[in-house]
Each structure stands twice: as structure tokens, then as C-alpha cells.
Write a structure and sequence with these properties.
With 1689 residues, the chain is mainly β. The protein is 11% helix and 36% strand.
């Protein structure tokens, strides 16, 4: 990119032309047969070739031949019918010319010559079979005998030169030292001669063609075309034969880049005597030696005899003749065959008459039109045979089936990859799929449309250009996008490498013009706006296509994903802006541009996040901090925009290889505004051989890395025009074209900037032509149609991350991102906090403007140790009311968990920067959490903050939290600063990685207390502005960057004005002009002031040449290098005179004559005088001029270095020759003259006393002007200037400062020295004052606390507070509060305590009743609250103690038994049961001692409900005992109504009301008065090991006797079980404890089988009747009272 030097308005006008399509020559029903004609000549297609192509049976009259859309006449040996084996087709073939290039030009007249094609010399011919009339050349009789016509004397021959020395790039405008070209084919562009420079001639002789001038003929004519190639005035002269100006036949003005097409008459008289040669000279009259012009062609038309110079073919023309013509042609090379004459005007073919030796005679009939004739030799050596034909069956794109709205134009080379896949077609398939956009995608082969729309002219842009216009007009639906898949090469580079074997591997899909423009491939002729959005993939292999296809699928898959998370979507809104200017001015300009784009990106529908990188050095390329850029790529970048200098391979602000960036699926869109960054159209064989890519190709084609597209210019960019383009592009992107594919954005940008106007300004047009897209035009940069507000884990930040209960507060920063479209609505934010006890509280709710990209709220939350210690939660909800329709409604809320901890230690006394006067002072530290668990603390003290001196002392203390006492065990040295630190010791890391807390103090014997800052590391803690303390521990001013520029050039060809030899500093010239040539000039600058040394007038100083008068020359020390004496003086000047540190500029002043200089090799010879290694050459080389040997011819150089300073990198520059100006710029840092040093806070003080400050003025003579300002700092941190001490007030009384208002002070030193730039060396400043005391909690003396208590239990808390300073506290105020679970604060009144002298301790003992504090509580104890009296620190004065009162939330247990048995509903019980009720509570402090805790009720059969009281023996209450919190209730009812059902209801609770279950105890039971027993069943049955017995007894008492007999099936009793064996029995349902194991009465195991059993009972001498309950159907298992059981071991 180049700076604008001036603004030039260019207005171009175009003729309106109708659009035509170059496929109109094709009949799609016919098959064509293609072959190539690379040279002019006679060609034959033999029958064998026709037969091989399947055309052997085609009648001769049906053959038809086409070239460039025009039918060609054929001669066929057989006029009709099928050809025989000896027959052939003959025609004169023409190589390709530039006639098809004409329409490419903005105006057809801009093409100087159409003789040669800009793309290929090879013509493509197409043979076809056509049943209609076809053009022929037919044999006709050449009747010479009897001819009466005289022989023609002459014909007007046309000869000339059509130059191909190079391609003239055409019209240009110089900008910033280079020429800026447009992509359009402009005036003068095309093949031309070499450059003709200013004041020179170009001689062009035609003698070798043997002109055979007919001297008696008419005058001749010279026609020529030429163009200017530089921005200078000139005339073009044309001279004939006699010298430069003698015989001048034309002198035409041709200024700047204008062109001339002239026709000049040449009198025949000037040609007399020169009948075989003519010499023309073209001259450039410009006085600028570097001016350039070219000649494209010249034609000389003159009367010529019929001498054909022994050629085998000769074209000539004759005017119409009513008489006819008789021709006698001589000197024609017929070979062994009779030549023929083609008459293209009549379609006749004449065979020459050879009857007269040496003459070829023809008699032509009368004619009425110009006769176009060609004589050809029929000799076999003059004939080229076409041996093969390539069949072409053209695709008819006018047919719907062959049309599409997404067009891929590619090359068959790319249709196969290394894996055999056709990724080009897979790309088509993808674009035709739903994920790819549901296009009707087609692949169009470049060779197909080249043959159709460019007549087979290889690489011609009209193939694509005309096809796109055809498709836009004919396709239905119309094409939406054109994607060129394949690298292209600019035509001039392609032609320059035409012989290379790689040319067609690199130029797979051609582009338009040079600089290349794909936009112009899609635009109608004459305008810039593309008809169809177009992009290109600059690939050279199928694998590269596959990589890009994979990336596109990933990219669009990410866009289409329904996963609305930050990781998946937010990256698409990240924009990285990079500025890469050459200097600070450019960087400022480009940054301002970027700010404008950033505003659009951030404040439009895009709502993007923009991060700007700006170049900060003048290095050619500045590297981005790799870690940050890698992080950005990995996070994902939606778009990367660059504005600055660039090339096809680099940006000024370099990005590394894309493989360095881990960004799979997150591919940015690159938008680069610079020079040639988009020029992927270079010809580089290494692209094939070694895959060397441009920066654009590298990023776009990198597999799983890089970018998704790269938009940049293929040529130079002009900042204001780039800015105009960019503003429009981004405005559309964020506005009316939001979500539009990038191809549409480019098209609409060009259109809205006037791309449809043929008269568009040159710079605008060039910028829009050359801004190209390497990527798919259908891709979208933004794809979200609606907003989507998201909050996730990492968006909720709790600060600090480690929260200690010793802190008073923490902050919550809640952030949300909008993953989608930015809208202007407002939404509700809702933030809730969940405490460790589960309580939820809303801490923020507000309606806020919906974020475009991101927004956040910051809340300060107090830390209350009673409630906060432990797991906390913050829940953030965005758009809490669902006011905005979003992409997703499920990602608007998130809950963040965090813990509040307690730990750490830090110095407490002496305070930082303190002055102490006790040389044995013990050092104290305190833990942040005074009750932290015991751990090892490491203390260190040293006289350096690095803690690496021999004086370092290290001690380890194992202690619990609170005060940590460190006794170094040394006697402090007077006036010595000590640094000390403390950290928790760890076994898992080294001490360097400990978390140290540092402090410092100075011991001053007999000094008043206060604060001091005097040591190096103490000074480093000060805030500084434009001053710093260096590694040598000296104060030095900051540096100011100065831009030093030197200029030079060879006199007078490159530099002839004083300004061209000017040197300046920051734009201000300090020297200009020189004094003669043949010299070396030295300028010496003071490194501090940058003032130049001055030379005296008259005799030069230090042996230099006599100084020329004038202030503008005074800084020059010029030495004549032709003189050895002067060179030796210069050597000593550089070596001995100039002091170290000086900035030195060395230039030469050379003339154009090599003898006006001596050179580096000559200078080396001076060692014969000065000794080995001693010469001007050696000195310059040693000072860093390492390429001094390159001064070996007339040229200019500049060398800049700082003597003896290795950090200064010497720089130098040479001119290329005698015509180019050079300059050298270097940034040099010089010291500033003003700086500020501001101390940390000093204090707190009870009373301020004095200020003392000292330092040294090291300037000589003294020139420092220091001044100290005292700032008062109030309790809120506000600073107010109070007093000022001048440099003479080194001791100042400050007792007037009120310490209650300003407990802290800060000192600021204004340090100024504008004379010698040496700052005042501040040594120390000190404040004397009465310091505040310092105390701290000391749990090591006393600490007692309970973390958890049970409700009702007393909570005891005891702790000690100790004064660790020499100063005393007044009576101590203590604040004690409890914040309960409901966030209610309870103040526990504590009276003021005694004054606390040094070393004394206060003990506080609390005993809290916990009944009111159920749940989580925070006990807060604060000594000296709210700075009731001044104190050094407060962090170690308070303690938050979380204690939990475990409330009695557990339900008591209720147990109910009937006669010792837990019954079920409907169970049968005794009519006089003993019902035992037990209420048991787990609390050991809340005893169950109250009868109100239990209620007993009975519902009778008639439905009545009775509540029993504890006023009789029926219901008796026994309270809980000391060791068992169980209350017992004995209930002894009597039920006199037999055979009825009752319900017992019991409820119970504990002392705090917790019920014994959610429901009362309910049980229904039955009372049956008659004693009975039910069938007895055994279970399980069958059984393997044992079986129990189940049965029911009714009545009020259990039978006295129950026996169970077990019998064999024969009736033998083998076992009898008694009541005692059965175990306890009761009224109701029984399951025996006893289980029979299948043994007999002797314990022997019985055999498997069936056994019988029965029950025998007796109650009061009577057996019991059988009880049969409702639903009892067990009788079926019994036979006459016997049951069966099965033993199956």
C-alpha cells in the first residue's frame, strides 16, 4: 500500500455496446472436432485422420471449419462425395492473434495492436459436419496463354514490426513512488517494444526483409502505435534513415501515459536508392532520463515489386480491377511442387504457370472489390499435417437441465485427489444439499466454456466473462453465485513463463487482466459491478479442494448448529483488527479507520466484539504476541481485518503459519486492506514443486486450520479509497445486507460505490476491480437471524476467587453475551444468591438495554462469616421475563457455586516503609484467618528484596492462626533498609513459588518514628511518569522516540535539488544540500539533545573539506574521497574524534562518471599507510557498514549508526544505480526532560511532624529543578495537594497537617532538567510522625469456640487481642454481633475495655444462649471497629466465626405396643391389653418432661372418640431421664364389649414442636371375648431346613397348655412340641419363635416325606374351640384336624 502523494481525477467515457455471446457459432446438434494451429502456414487433414475420427464416410461438401467464430474456406481434393484414401482437406491456417482481445479493453481504441494475442499464439480450429452451404476454395483455370494484359509493376506491400519485448501494463497513476494500475485493459496495454528512455532513440531496420521498393510508385505510409509509460511530458519522434532528426517524418506529443496511433506519409523520393532497406528511429524527447515510452508496432506500406523473397507463402492485396490482373512473380520458394494462389475474395484457387523460367504467372479475372490473395507452396515441407482430431460435443447451456443457480467453474486437473475422490463434484453435491444451501449447483469445466465462449483460445478471460453474462441472461433461475475452483495466473506472468512445463498446472482457471481481477470476470464489459457474485478457491490440487470443502462443511455446520453455547457460537462475533503502518503517522491514520469500522461492527446488527492490534515499531514486520493470537484463534475469530502494508506473502504485522493456530471448525473471514495481499495470481513454480503458497492461499487452504476465506486486493491499495470501500462494506454487513453472503456484500458494495458507472474515477474503479475473494462467495460471516442472550459458568466471576472470611466483601461480575443479532430492546437481569444454608435471596433485578455483544453488572457483596462460609451459589438469569424472542430460551440462566475460605499471613508490624529505632525489634505477622489450623510459616529477612544476600536469615515457625512472632536474632545495622516476608511453607513447591507477603523498614538509631523510602527496591514501588530507576539504580528520564531521516542520490541523475540531500529529525530539516561531488559526508548528532555538530566555514574542522557557506550546510563534514589524505582524515575523524554514543550519519555524494569516485576497494589500499586493518574501509565495516564492498560503482549510500553502542543496530541503504533516490529512516530514543515520582501511602499518623528528603544533582553545572508536593489522603482514599517543598526546602515542618483529616500522606517529586537531561537523583524521603498503634487477635493466648452446637446448648467463645506495637491504645471498643439464619443482626453489648499498652492483652469471653439462633450464624467480633482510634492495620482485628446451631428439626420417635407386640390394623388384641407408648427424642438438651407432649385417644365401636388424661391409673406419664430422653406412657384400657372393633390414636411432639411423624399414630384392632384358636399353619411348607407355626388366639388370656404333635402318615408320633418350646404367645396373631428342624424327639433327622401334625390346647381344663376369621379358607388344608407338612431336604 502506498501513501497518496496527490489526487488526480480521471474521467473515462465508454461507448455503449450491446452484449453478445461468443457461442453463437455453435450448432449444438452437431459434433465438432478440435485441433490446434500454432503457426501460420498451409495445413492438410488427410483422409486417414478423418477416418480415425469417424469421419471417413462424410461427403466432402458437408465439411465445415471454424476459427474464432468465423467459418474458414476449405480446399478439398474432392468436391462432392466420400473422400478416398488419397484425398485431403487443405486450408491456410493462421496462428491466434489479438482480435479477440479487443473487446476486453475499456475502449477498443486503447488496443494499439491486435497482431499478437495476449494469451496464446495457438488457434483452435473446429471441424464439423454441416449439410448446408459451406465455404470453399475451388480450383479455377489460370489461363496465361493469350494474355494481353501488361504485368503489374508493383503492389502496395505492408511490412513492419509487431513488438513482443514485453507487455506494457498500460495506463497508470503514480502514487507514493509506485505506479498504480487498474485491472481493466487500458490505453497502451499490450505487447510492446523495450522501454525507450528520455532523450534516446530506438532504431528499427527493415533491411533483412528485402523491401524491393518500386521507386516509381506512389508514396509510402508509416503507421505506428506507441504509449507513454511514465508521468512526464514528451513527444514521440519518427525519423527515417539519416540520423536522429534529419529526415524526421513525425513529431507527436504523447505526454504521461497517453498513447498515439499515427499514420505518416513517406515521400517516395526519400526511399530512392534504398530499395532493399529502410531505417526508422523512434525517439523520446523527454528531458527526464528515467522517462519511458514504448512502441507497440509500426507498419510500412510502400510500392513493392513482385519479388517474394523466396518465401513459401505470401499474402498481398490488389485493388479492384475492371481489366483483370496479370502477375509475374519472382523469387518464390515453390520447392518441388507447383505453387497455388488463393483468392479469398472469390473463393478461387489458381495453379501457377511455370512456363517461363523463374517466373510464376497468374491471370486474374476482373474484380469489383479488393482482392485478398495468398500464394502458397504445395511442397510437402511447407505443409503441416493434422494427425488427430479431438471430438467435442458441446453442452447446450440454454437447456434447463444444464443450468444451475450455483455455478462452479473448475479444471479437470482438480477432479481427482490423491485418494481418487472428485472433491469438486462433492462440493457441488454439498451446495445442492440442505446444509449447503439447497442450490441447484452445477460444475462447468473451464475447457468446455473456453471452447464455446472463447473459441478455444486457451486462458482467455472471455470464456468465463461471456459465459457468466450468458448464464445471467439465459439461466432460469438466474445464477446466484459463481465459484471458481482453481488457481489463476495474471496474463502477463503467464505469457512471461509460457514455455514453462508448469504454466497450465498453475493457471487452472484464468482471471481477468493484470493486476488480476475476478470481479471483472463477472461484470459486463465496460463496468465494474459483477453481475453475479464471484469468488475463487486458489487451489492447485484435488486434495486442497477437499480440505476446503471439509472446512466449509465444518464452518457452516457451526453456523447451523442448534447448540447455542458460547463455545459454539460466540466466536463468530469476535473481530480482530490489526494495523500495520510504516510509522506512527500511518498507524494513527489506520487506527482511526479501524475505529470507524469497529463502531459499525459493534453498534450495528452485528454486535461484534472488536480487539485491535496496532504496530508499535518501525520494523519491516512486527510479530503479534504469539500467545495472544494463538489464544484468539483457539477461542475462535469470526473475522480478522487488517489495514496496513502487506505483500502477497506477508503482512506488516505478521501472522504465523496457520498450522500454529489450533482453530478447527472456527475459521475466521480475513478482510485485508493492503497491497497485493490478495494476489494469488503470481506465477511461482514452487507452488507446485514445494507447495509454496501466498499468505491468502496458506490460510484458506490449510487443512483444519487457517481461515474460511481471504478478501484482499491483488494490487496496491490507496488508504482513503480502501477506507471508502471498507466503510460501505461494513455498513452493508451490519445493516441492510445483514446475514447476506459475502459475495453479495462485495457486489452491493461495488454497486453502491458507483461500480455500474463507466465513468467511475480511476482510483475507485481500480480499488473495486482488484478487491478479490479467495473463498466461496456464498458463505456468510453472520448467520443468526435473532438475538440469543446466554450466560454460562465462566461468565459469572466471583472476585477474588479465593474469598476469605477475613475479607469484608467480594464482588460478583455477571456477564452475558448475545450470540446472535443485536437488537434495541431492553431485558430484565435477575441475580439471586443461595447461601450455604439453602436460603435464596434476590440481590439484583433491573431492566437494562439488551447487549449487542456483551454486558455485565458488578455487585459488591458483603462477607458475613456466620452465613457465608461454605458453599454459596449465584444464579444469573438474563431476559428473566422472556421479553425478547431468541434463538434459544434455554441458555438464559446459570448457577455458579463458590466457597468462602479462610487462610494466609502477612506482615503486621513494623508497617511497610516504617522507621524503627529499636535495633532488636521483633517482627510480627498475622494470619488473615486468626483461627486457621496450625501450619509451618517461613520468615525471611534480608537487606535486599531479592533475598539472596549473605545476610539473609530464614526461620520456620509452626503455629496456628493469629499473631506470628519473628525474632531474627540480630542487631539491626544503622541506616539500613531491611526487607522481610512471610509465607505458608509448602512441601510440594520451592520457596520461589511460595505466596510471599513482603514488607520493609529502616533502622535509624535515635530517629523519630515515621516512614522512609530510600532503597532501590523501595523506590521501585513508587508510581512514576516518564522516569524510572534503571538497573544501575540510577533515576533516568523516560525516552522520547525521534524519527531521523537521511536522503541521498547520485548527482544529478537521481538527486539535483537541495531537498533531495536533506536530513531531518521529526520532520524538521537540520541539513540540506551538499557541496560538490566525490565526497563522503558525515553528520554527527549529540545522543542526548540530537543537536548536530557544526562545521566552520573556510577551512573545515577535523581535516574535512572547506565548509560551504550557509546554515543549511553547517552540519556537514565532507571529505573528498579522491584524496588519500582526506580519506585518512575521515578515518581518524570516525575512529578518534567522534565520541562514543554519538549518532553518526554517513553519506556519499557521487557523480555518474565512475572516475568521480574512489571505491571500497580503493579505501582498503590505505592500509599501506595506516597499517593492517586500519583504513576508512575497515572503520566503516567495523562500525556496522557490512556491505561497504557493494560501493563499487557510481551509486549512493547512507549509513547510520551510534558509535560504540551495541544495542543500536546499524542500518544502511544503497541506491540501485544512478537514477533512484534513497532515504533511510531510523527511530532513535532520546531522554525526556520531565518526570514524576510518587510514593506509596505513608502512615497512618496520629500527629504529623516533619518531611526530610535528600538527593544529588549530577548535572554539571547543576541544572536539576526538583520539587516535592505533599498530598493528603483521607479515609476514603481521596488525595489533596497540601504543601510543596522547593529544591532548597529539604527539611519541612508538616505539623500543621491534620492527621485526623489526612491520616495518610503521599509524596510526589517533580523532576525536571531540560538542559542536561539528567534527573535529580532522589536518595530518600522521610516523614516523621507519631504512628498509630497496631494490635492483632492472638488465639495462641486464648481461643475457645464451637463450630456446631445443639439448640439449647450454650455456645462459648473466647479470644485474645494483643498490642504488638510500642504505641498504646486508648480504651478499647469492641463490637460483637450475631447474624442469624434469617439475616437478622443481633448486637451483643460489650462494655469498653481497658486501654491497651504495648505488649498487653485484652481477653474477651462470651457465652451465648443458642435457643434464638437455630441454623447457620455468624459471630462477628471486631476490636477497634470503624477505626475508632487510628491503627496501622485492621485486617487482623476481627474474626468471623461461623457457628451452626443444630435445631431440633428431627421428629421424635413414637412407639406403641399391645402387650409387648406391634400390631397391624385389624389385628385381634386382648380385651384387657397393656398399651405401652414411648416418645423418644434425640436431643440431649431438650428433655421430654411435659405431659402435653403426648395425646392418647380411643375411638369406640359406636364412633365416639375419647381423649384420655393423665389424672388416673389408666394413663400414666413417666418423664425422660437424665441419660435417656424418652418419655413413657402406660395405657391400660378394658374392653367389655366383645367381638367389636376399636381405633387407638396417639400423637406426640418434642419440646420444639416437631411431631412424631407427619401423621398421628392410628391403628384399628379387634377384641373377641371367647377363647379360641385358629387353624395352625406351618411356614414355609414344604420346607428344607426348618418351619415355624402361625395361628391366632382370641379371648383375654393365653391357654395354659398348647402342644403340637408331629406324626408319620401311619400315625406314629415322632415329635411333640410344648408351649414352653413355642416361646412367648399372646392374644391375637402369633408366629412362633420356635422353628421345627425335621428331627424326632431324639434329635435324629427324619426322612424326607409327608408328615401330619395337630394342635392340643387346654384353658382352665377345657380345650379351645376353633376360630375361623372372616375370609379364612384354610380348612381345605386340614383333614379331621390334621394338617400336612412336607419335608424336602
Amino acid at each position: 500500500m502506498k501513501k497518496i502523494l496527490f489526487i488526480l481525477s480521471i474521467f473515462s467515457f465508454f461507448a455503449a455496446t450491446g452484449q453478445t455471446y461468443q457461442n453463437s457459432w455453435i450448432n449444438y446438434n452437431q459434433t465438432y472436432y478440435k485441433f490446434s494451429v500454432p503457426n501460420n502456414g498451409l495445413y492438410r487433414i488427410p483422409y486417414s485422420t478423418l477416418q480415425a475420427a469417424g469421419l471417413g464416410n462424410v461427403p466432402a461438401e458437408q465439411f465445415q471449419l471454424w476459427r474464432n467464430g468465423v467459418e474458414q474456406p476449405l480446399y478439398i481434393t474432392k468436391t462432392t462425395g466420400t473422400l478416398g484414401s488419397s484425398d485431403y482437406i487443405e486450408f491456410f491456417g493462421l496462428m491466434n492473434d489479438g482480435k479477440q482481445d479487443t473487446k476486453l479493453y475499456r475502449q477498443t481504441d486503447f488496443q494499439l495492436s491486435d497482431h499478437y494475442s495476449l494469451y496464446t499464439d495457438t488457434s483452435s480450429y473446429f471441424l464439423t459436419v454441416h449439410a448446408g452451404a459451406n465455404l470453399r476454395l475451388v480450383d479455377d483455370a489460370n489461363i496465361v496463354a493469350g494474355n494481353t494484359l501488361p504485368a503489374e509493376k508493383y503492389f502496395m506491400n505492408k511490412v513492419g514490426n509487431y513488438f513482443r519485448s514485453g507487455i506494457n501494463p498500460g495506463y497508470s497513476i503514480p502514487v507514493g513512488g509506485v505506479y498504480l494500475y487498474s485491472s481493466s485493459f487500458d490505453q497502451g496495454e499490450g505487447w510492446s517494444s523495450r522501454y525507450i528512455t528520455g532523450g534516446s532513440q530506438y532504431e528499427l531496420a527493415l533491411s533483412k526483409q528485402n523491401l524491393n521498393i518500386y521507386p516509381s510508385g506512389p508514396d509510402g505510409t508509416v503507421t505506428y502505435g506507441a504509449a507513454g509509460c511514465a508521468f512526464n511530458n514528451r513527444n514521440i519522434t519518427v525519423s527515417l534513415n539519416n540520423g536522429i532528426y534529419t529526415g524526421m517524418i513525425d513529431n507527436a506529443p504523447m505526454p504521461s501515459f497517453n498513447y498515439v496511433k499515427n499514420s505518416v506519409k513517406v515521400p517516395i523520393s526519400l526511399l530512392s536508392g534504398n530499395n532493399n532497406w529502410v531505417n526508422f528511429r523512434f525517439g523520446n524527447t523527454s528531458t527526464v532520463s528515467t522517462d519511458r515510452m514504448v512502441v507497440s508496432y509500426f507498419n510500412f506500406t510502400y510500392p513493392s515489386t513482385f519479388n517474394f523473397n523466396n518465401l513459401t507463402s505470401f499474402y498481398f492485396e490488389l485493388p479492384a480491377s475492371s481489366q483483370g490482373n496479370y502477375l509475374e512473380i519472382i523469387n518464390f520458394n515453390k520447392g518441388t511442387s507447383t505453387p497455388v494462389l488463393y483468392d479469398y475474395s472469390t473463393g478461387k484457387r489458381y495453379t501457377a504457370d511455370l512456363s517461363v523460367a523463374g517466373k510464376y504467372r497468374f491471370v486474374l479475372p476482373p474484380s469489383t472489390t479488393l482482392q485478398k490473395l495468398r500464394m502458397v507452396s504445395e511442397d510437402p515441407t511447407a505443409i503441416t499435417t493434422i494427425n488427430s482430431l479431438t471430438q467435442r460435443k458441446f453442452i447446450d447451456y440454454s437447456q434447463f437441465a444444464n443450468q444451475g443457480n450455483y455455478i462452479i467453474i473448475s479444471n479437470s486437473i482438480l477432479y481427482s485427489s490423491s485418494t481418487g475422490d472428485n472433491f469438486v463434484d462433492e462440493y457441488r453435491q454439498y451446495r445442492s444439499s440442505a446444509p449447503g444451501g439447497n442450490f441447484k449447483a452445477i460444475v462447468v469445466d473451464i475447457n468446455e466454456i473456453t471452447d464455446q465462449f472463447a473459441y478455444g483460445i486457451s486462458k482467455h478471460p472471455s470464456a468465463i466473462k461471456d459465459f457468466i453474462q450468458f448464464a445471467a441472461a439465459k439461466f432460469n433461475p438466474a445464477p446466484k453465485y459463481v465459484f471458481l475452483i482453481g488457481k489463476g495466473v495474471a496474463y502477463d506472468e503467464y505469457m512471461a513463463n509460457y514455455s514453462s512445463a508448469y504454466k497450465d498446472r498453475l493457471n487452472l482457471v484464468q482471471t481477468f487482466g493484470s493486476p488480476a481481477s475476478d470481479n471483472l470476470l463477472s461484470s459486463p464489459y465496460g463496468i465494474t459491478t459483477p453481475t453475479v457474485p464471484i469468488g475463487r478457491l486458489s487451489a492447485v490440487s484435488g486434495d486442497e479442494v477437499g480440505s476446503y470443502l471439509s472446512k466449509m462443511k465444518e464452518y457452516e455446520g457451526e453456523q447451523q448448529s442448534t447448540s447455542q453455547t458460547i463455545n459454539d457460537k460466540l466466536w463468530m462475533k469476535n473481530v480482530v483488527q490489526i494495523v500495520g503502518g510504516k510509522d506512527s503517522s500511518e498507524n494513527s491514520t489506520f487506527r482511526n479507520y479501524m475505529y470507524g469500522y469497529g463502531s459499525i461492527l459493534q453498534d450495528s446488527s452485528l454486535g461484534d466484539h472488536v480487539e485491535l492490534f496496532s504496530k508499535t515499531s518501525n520494523a519491516a514486520v512486527q510479530l503479534i504476541a504469539s500467545q495472544r493470537i494463538e489464544q484468539l484463534f483457539e477461542e475462535g475469530i469470526g473475522m480478522l481485518t487488517y489495514f496496513g502494508h502487506s505483500s502477497a506473502n506477508t503482512l506488516e504485522y505478521n501472522l504465523s503459519d496457520p498450522q500454529s493456530y489450533n482453530n478447527p471448525s472456527k475459521y475466521p473471514f480475513f478482510f485485508v486492506s493492503g497491497c497485493t495481499a490478495g494476489n494469488n495470481f503470481v506465477y511461482d513454480t514452487m507452488r507446485i514443486v514445494a507447495n509454496r503458497t501466498t499468505i491468502s492461499e496458506n490460510f484458506v487452504l490449510s487443512k483444519n486450520r487457517g481461515s474460511i476465506a481471504f478478501m484482499a486486493s491483488t494490487h496496491y491499495g490507496i488508504p482513503p479509497y480502501l477506507d471508502e470501500y471498507n466503510l460501505k462494506f461494513f455498513s452493508l454487513l451490519g445493516g441492510q445486507n445483514y446475514m447476506a453472503p459475502v459475495g453479495n456484500l462485495i457486489k452491493n458494495t461495488i454497486d453502491q460505490l458507483g461500480g455500474g458507472n463507466p465513468g467511475l474515477g480511476y482510483f475507485n474503479r481500480a480499488d473495486m476491480e482488484e478487491m478479490g475473494l479467495n473463498g466461496d462467495p456464498a458463505l456468510k460471516i453472520h448467520s443468526e437471524p435473532k438475538p440469543d442472550f446466554v450466560v454460562e459458568d465462566n461468565l459469572i466471576k466471583i472476585d477474588p476467587s479465593f474469598i476469605s472470611v477475613s475479607q469484608e466483601k467480594f464482588t460478583v461480575k455477571a456477564k452475558t453475551y448475545n450470540l446472535g443479532k443485536a437488537v434495541g430492546d431492553s431485558i430484565y437481569w435477575d441475580i439471586k444468591r443461595t447461601y450455604p444454608n439453602g436460603t435464596v435471596k434476590t440481590i439484583f433485578r433491573k431492566k437494562i438495554q439488551a447487549p449487542y455483544y456483551a454486558d455485565s453488572v458488578l455487585l459488591t457483596v458483603p462477607v458475613i462469616s456466620s452465613t457465608d462460609k461454605g458453599l454459596n451459589k449465584i444464579t444469573v438469569t438474563i431476559d428473566a421475563n422472556n421479553d425478547v424472542d431468541e434463538m434459544s430460551e434455554t441458555n438464559n440462566s446459570f448457577t455458579k457455586e463458590f466457597f468462602i475460605y479462610e487462610d494466609e499471613a502477612q506482615p503486621a508490624y513494623p508497617g511497610n516503609y516504617a522507621i524503627i529505632n529499636n535495633n532488636k525489634q521483633i517482627l510480627y505477622a498475622s494470619t488473615s484467618n486468626p483461627i486457621s489450623t496450625p501450619k509451618d510459616y517461613e520468615f525471611q529477612i534480608d537487606t535486599t528484596e531479592l533475598f539472596n544476600s549473605p545476610l539473609k536469615i530464614t526461620k520456620t515457625l509452626n503455629s496456628a492462626g493469629g499473631i506470628l512472632e519473628f525474632d531474627p536474632g540480630i542487631t539491626y545495622l544503622d541506616s539500613t533498609v531491611y526487607y522481610w516476608r512471610v509465607a505458608v511453607k509448602s512441601d510440594t513447591t520451592t520457596e520461589e513459588n511460595y505466596h510471599w507477603n513482603n514488607s520493609s523498614f529502616i533502622y535509624l538509631a535515635n530517629s523519630y518514628p515515621g516512614s522512609n523510602q530510600s532503597h532501590y527496591y523501595q523506590h521501585l514501588a513508587s508510581d512514576t511518569t516518564d522516569i524510572k530507576m534503571n538497573d544501575a539504580r540510577k533515576w533516568e528520564f523516560g525516552s522520547v522516540t525521534n524519527i531521523i531521516t537521511a536522503r541521498d542520490g547520485v548527482f544529478p541523475t537521481a538527486a539535483s535539488y537541495a531537498t533531495q540531500f536533506a536530513n531531518d529529525i521529526n520532520g524538521a530539516t537540520f541539513v540540506s544540500s551538499v557541496c560538490g561531488i566525490s565526497g563522503v559526508i558525515v553528520n554527527v548528532l549529540d545522543p542526548i539533545t540530537l543537536k548536530p555538530w557544526l562545521n566552520t566555514t573556510g577551512t573545515g574542522r577535523f581535516g574535512s573539506d572547506s565548509a560551504c557557506p550557509g546554515a543549511n550546510l553547517a552540519p556537514n563534514f565532507q571529505f573528498n574521497i579522491l584524496s588519500q589524505t582526506k580519506r585518512i582524515a575521515l578515518y581518524h575523524f570516525l575512529k578518534d574524534t567522534i565520541p562514543a554514543g554519538s549518532l553518526v550519519i554517513v553519506r556519499n555524494i557521487s557523480g555518474t562518471d565512475p572516475t568521480t569516485n574512489t571505491y571500497a576497494s580503493d579505501w582498503q589500499g590505505d592500509t599501506t599507510v595506516l597499517g593492517p586493518g586500519n583504513s576508512l574501509y575497515n572503520q566503516l565495516f567495523n562500525d556496522g557498514f557490512t556491505l561497504v564492498d557493494s560501493f563499487n560503482r557510481p551509486r549512493a549510500f547512507i549509513f547510520m549508526y551510534q558509535k560504540g553502542i551495541p544495542d543500536f543496530i546499524p542500518t544502511f541503504v544503497f541506491s540501485k544505480g544512478i537514477y533512484d533516490l534513497i532515504s533511510l529512516t531510523h527511530n532513535f530514543s532520546a531522554p525526556d526532560s520531565l518526570g514524576y515520582i510518587k510514593s506509596p501511602k505513608f502512615g497512618p499518623a496520629v500527629n504529623w511532624k516533619e518531611l526530610h528528603w535528600r538527593g544529588v544533582d549530577e548535572s554539571n553545572p547543576p541544572s536539576d529543578n526538583p520539587q516535592v508536593t505533599i498530598f493528603g489522603v483521607d479515609k476514603n482514599g481521596n488525595e489533596t495537594p497540601l504543601m510543596t517543598a522547593s529544591k532548597d526546602q529539604r527539611d519541612l515542618n508538616i505539623s500543621s497537617i491534620n492527621a485526623k483529616t489526612y491520616p495518610y500522606l503521599r509524596l510526589q517529586l517533580r523532576n525536571a532538567d531540560s538542559v542536561q537531561f539528567t534527573p535529580f537523583q532522589l536518595q530518600y524521603w522521610r516523614l516523621n510522625y507519631d504512628p498509630a498503634p497496631e494490635g492483632a487477635l492472638d488465639p495462641t493466648i486464648l481461643f475457645k469456640a464451637q463450630d456446631t452446637v445443639i439448640q439449647g446448648q450454650q455456645m462459648d467463645f473466647e479470644i485474645a487481642f494483643k498490642n504488638i506495637s510500642p504505641e498504646a491504645f486508648d480504651s478499647m471498643r469492641i463490637n460483637v454481633t450475631v447474624v442469624d439464619a434469617n439475616n437478622v443482626t443481633h448486637v451483643i453489648p460489650i462494655p469498653r475495655q481497658k486501654p491497651l499498652i504495648s505488649g498487653d492483652t485484652i481477653l474477651i469471653k462470651l457465652s451465648l444462649d443458642t435457643k434464638p439462633y437455630v441454623g447457620e450464624n455468624v459471630l462477628f467480633v471486631d476490636f477497634n471497629p470503624n477505626n475508632d482510634q487510628p491503627e496501622l492495620y485492621h485486617y487482623n482485628n476481627f474474626i468471623y466465626h461461623n457457628f451452626y446451631v443444630k435445631g431440633d428439626f428431627i421428629n421424635p420417635l413414637l412407639d406403641v405396643t399391645f402387650d409387648g407386640v406391634h400390631i397391624l390394623n385389624q389385628d385381634i388384641v386382648s380385651s384387657k391389653p397393656h398399651i405401652l407408648i414411648k416418645l423418644k427424642d434425640e436431643s440431649t438438651f431438650l428433655k421430654l418432661t411435659d405431659t402435653s407432649l403426648v395425646k392418647v385417644q380411643l375411638r369406640y365401636p359406636d364412633g365416639t372418640l375419647k381423649t384420655f388424661g393423665f389424672d388416673n391409673d389408666t394413663l400414666r406419664f413417666t418423664p425422660a431421664g437424665a441419660n435417656d430422653n424418652t418419655a413413657t406412657i402406660d395405657f391400660n384400657p378394658s374392653f367389655f364389649s366383645a367381638d367389636d372393633e376399636y381405633e387407638l390414636i396417639v400423637s406426640g411432639k418434642d419440646l420444639v414442636g416437631n411431631p412424631a411423624g407427619a401423621l398421628n399414630y392410628h391403628v384399628t384392632f379387634r377384641v373377641i371375648g371367647k377363647p379360641m384358636i385358629s387353624n395352625m399353619l406351618n411356614y414355609p411348607n414344604p420346607f428344607t431346613t426348618s418351619t415355624a407355626f402361625v395361628f391366632t388366639i382370641t379371648g383375654s388370656e393365653v391357654p395354659q397348655n398348647i402342644r403340637i404333635q408331629i406324626l408319620t402318615i401311619t400315625g406314629k408320633v415322632v415329635r411333640e412340641i410344648t408351649k414352653d418350646e413355642l416361646g412367648p404367645l399372646h392374644i391375637g396373631r402369633n408366629i412362633t419363635d420356635f422353628k421345627w428342624d425335621g428331627t424326632d424327639m431324639y434329635g435324629q433327622k427324619l426322612a424326607n416325606g409327608v408328615y401330619l401334625y395337630r394342635v392340643l390346647t387346654n384353658l382352665n381344663g377345657k380345650s379351645l374351640d376353633k376360630f375361623t376369621d372372616v375370609g379364612d379358607n384354610t380348612d381345605k388344608y386340614f383333614n379331621k384336624g390334621y394338617g400336612k407338612m412336607y419335608l424336602m431336604r
